[in-house]
Design brief:
The protein is built from seven helices and 36 strands. The chain is mainly beta.
Length: 747
């Protein structure tokens, strides 16, 4: 009765014997096994077609570039697709010896069926649904007595949308039916225009004015059917319209002058940016005539809303570049930026940078060393302002409308005033050496240290305050590390070349100041002396071999507490509420980077790139969901077969106990997994036809085949380590394996 469906070949009351053990005669029916493969039912073979064409030309005073493109993609989830048309025209005119101007116009029109994928936690999300669904439940309706398909009046199979599954098997939902019967169509139109005027005067001066405009239209058609899912039983529909306009205008005055070995470049400028968003959405329910999802075909008004967002920035800038004989380089810059996100007293921030470089390879004592091709030492310190991570009206006290009681209007305060908010500043120092040796080895070795001051962060507030959070400048944090990039020509021959390009990075992250002792943020705790990516978790230490209970390091306890277990010198608890929190591991890897190999022989070329990560941890919420012992009807990992089953069993998987899931499934170090991986990210094999084959009709012909995400090796199959740098996982699309065949033709 708990499963709601009998997958065995014996009657319901014969599956479990009176002593509580499984009946050995109860065998899985196995009939219509393919009809229980929900992942296969929700997926299809995806495909992508991409066609691009461009044309360019130039005369003494005019140059132009025109391009057009078309993309048609069918996703690997059923009913998902994407189409896009693009066009662009770029013209530059030298109108007079002192005036140059031009215009760049582009547009994009796209549409896509989103297949009702929903959020990572929603029932209609196909990744979540197929991961959670127990593989005993059929996709189509079966006769429980005969196991045969129940056909409709036209002889077609019917989806099993009856409410006969337990809640952990998504009762009352059917991801395949909902994707096919629902609608989520997104249409976007983007228009872009840019023009400029460049005036040269007094020989060394140049004034440039740039004006750009972007307009984006977004229209969403949303429908939930009346048979199963969120729209049942009447059906519902929504329309969402979004328009976003942005303007950017800057004016730049440039002075360039050389005095013998001295070269000077001075730039001053001003820029302004404006952004406006208008949004409108409406919902109605209870469809009248099937097949028509326009709002007029629905009876009951459900919701209507609209809003407008405005955002603006303005900045003044200056930069000086100087070099002596292309050997010594010095640069300095200053910016003053203002943002509408901050209160008037804090709207403006000042930021500067300085840098220097020395081309040692231009010195005589280096030039005598023929094996040194290039050697450059450089360093810099600079500041950049940041106002992202907070909403457009972050400093204002905000109120939420629409909380009405019949005809009496109602509002509530949704956000506290934050007039003290100010710019976040990223202050970076770096020092690097660029080198080239023996005409084969080139690279850069760099050390960086970046301090992020006045961090903008959404800080959670006590529930007693009536509001969830407030935007605040919460403190200071630094990131530092080493980055190395190398390009090595392993083989250089007239017909055969092999180049190896590799890079790796390290990262250290730490808070140096916070306005409060600690801020809990999910599986992390922000605290001075610790990283933004350090895990703050309950310490899981294993399983009690006597009774299979999960064990945690005890925190507040008395030796007489019933949940306490003493093992050697350790005091442990089987109650996760009494367990000890602590810092355990980090999502930051010890090393990460990529390795690219390029081999060429005559017209053939082979290029392949590996990305990798060594060290770091990921907290596997997805794995936890298939290791829970308290779900009826949900799928399980085969790892649960290694659970504790009898006294004396030594394992790290607790016993299956429907009454103890809170303790077994608690967010803890149990779910931390090694995040190291290696991924064959891309491989391309191509052939460039020689001119003697293509003849005069073509300037170039290239054929190629490529693959993406061809191979990945990590600690657990199916684990997407690359999903989030913070080390968390959720039910989202995993990287697709893509194969491409292409032709490049130049006329």
């Amino acid at each position: 009765g708990y499963l709601g469906y009998n997958p065995f070949n014996v009657a319901d009351d014969q599956i479990v014997l009176p002593d509580g053990t499984m009946n050995p005669a109860a065998q899985y029916k196995g009939a219509y096994g393919e009809d229980r493969d929900w992942l296969d039912g929700v997926s299809q073979q995806g495909s992508r077609q991409n066609y691009d064409m461009s044309y360019s030309g130039a005369s003494d005073k005019v140059d132009y570039f025109i391009s057009a493109g078309y993309l048609n993609e069918k996703g690997w989830i059923i009913e998902s697709d994407f189409k896009r048309f693009t066009g662009r025209a770029n013209v530059n005119v030298q109108a007079t010896p002192w005036l140059k101007t031009g215009v760049n116009i582009g547009g994009t029109q796209s549409s896509g069926n989103m297949a009702q994928t929903g959020t990572s936690s929603s029932y209609v999300n196909p990744i979540r649904f197929t991961r959670q669904m127990g593989p005993i439940y059929p996709i189509h309706l079966l006769d429980p007595a005969t196991g045969e398909y129940v056909l409709d009046s036209d002889g077609n199979k019917q989806y099993d949308i009856n409410d006969n599954r337990p809640s952990d098997a998504s009762t009352g939902r059917h991801v395949i039916a909902e994707i096919k019967w629902d609608e989520d169509l997104e249409e976007r139109t983007q228009l872009m225009a840019k023009t400029y005027a460049e005036i040269t005067f007094l020989k060394d001066f140049k004034f440039t004015a740039n004006l750009s405009f972007d307009q984006n239209y977004y229209y969403n058609t949303y429908f939930n059917n009346k048979f199963v899912g969120d729209g049942a039983p009447g059906g519902r529909a929504a329309r969402n319209f979004d328009r976003r306009n942005s303007f950017n205008f800057n004016q730049l005055l440039n002075y360039v002058k050389s005095f013998g070995n001295h070269n000077l470049n001075i730039l001053i400028g001003h820029e302004s940016y404006q952004y406006k968003r208008n949004h409108l959405d409406g919902w109605k329910s209870e469809i009248v005539a099937d097949g028509n999802t326009e709002l007029g075909n629905f009876v009951t008004f459900y919701d209507m809303d609209s809003y407008e967002d405005n955002y603006a920035t303005e900045g003044y800038l200056a930069r000086i570049d100087y070099n002596f004989n292309n050997r010594f380089f010095v640069t300095g810059s200053f910016r003053r930026d203002g943002s509408s996100k901050f209160y008037v007293d804090n709207q403006w921030g000042n930021f500067f940078s300085v840098g220097a470089a020395w081309r040692l390879d231009q010195e005589t004592f280096i030039q005598d060393a023929s094996w040194i091709n290039m050697l450059k030492l450089r360093g810099s310190y600079g500041q950049v302002g940041n106002d992202s991570g907070i909403d457009f009206y972050a400093y204002q006290a905000l109120y939420s409308l629409g909380w009405n009681n019949q005809t009496a209007s109602g509002i509530y305060q949704s956000k506290l005033m934050a007039q003290a908010l100010q710019w976040e500043s990223n202050n970076s120092f770096d020092i690097a050496v660029e080198f080239g040796f023996i005409d084969r080895i080139y690279g850069t070795l760099e050390f960086y240290h970046r301090i992020s001051d006045n961090l903008l962060f959404e800080v959670p507030l006590p529930l007693s305050g009536g509001m969830d959070s407030q935007d605040q400048n919460i403190g200071t944090m630094y990131n530092q590390g080493i980055e190395l990039s190398l390009s090595i020509d392993i083989i250089k021959r007239s017909n055969f070349n092999w180049n190896l390009n590799t890079n790796f990075s390290t990262l250290k992250n730490e808070f140096t100041y916070l306005p409060q002792d600690e801020i809990i943020d999910g599986s992390k705790k922000l605290m001075v002396g610790h990283s933004r990516y350090d895990y703050w978790l309950k310490e899981f230490v294993g399983v009690d071999p006597d009774d299979g209970s999960p064990l945690y390091r005890a925190d507040n306890y008395s030796d007489t507490d019933s949940d306490i277990r003493i093992q050697g010198s350790d005091t442990l608890t089987i109650d996760q509420n009494n367990s000890r929190y602590g810092y355990f591991d980090s999502a930051i890897p010890a090393l990460f980077g990529a390795v690219t190999n390029t081999l060429s022989y005559k017209g053939f070329s082979l290029n392949f790139m590996f990305t990798y990560q060594i060290g770091g941890k990921v907290i596997e919420y997805n794995y936890r969901s298939v290791m829970s012992s308290g779900d009826y009807g949900a799928s399980k990992s085969v790892d649960i077969l290694n659970r504790w089953q009898q006294p004396g069993d030594v394992t790290d998987i607790p016993r299956m106990d429907v009454t103890n899931t809170t303790n077994s499934d608690a967010t803890s170090t149990r779910w931390l997994t090694d995040a190291s991986f290696i991924n064959l990210r891309q491989l391309t094999f191509s052939y460039n036809f020689p001119q003697k084959i293509t003849g005069s009709w073509s300037k170039g012909l290239r054929l190629y085949v490529s693959g993406e995400n061809l191979f990945i090796k990590s600690a657990r199959q199916g684990m997407n380590v690359q999903q989030n740098f913070s080390g968390t996982t959720s039910n989202v699309y995993t990287p697709s394996r893509i194969f491409t065949f292409g032709v490049n033709l130049t006329l």
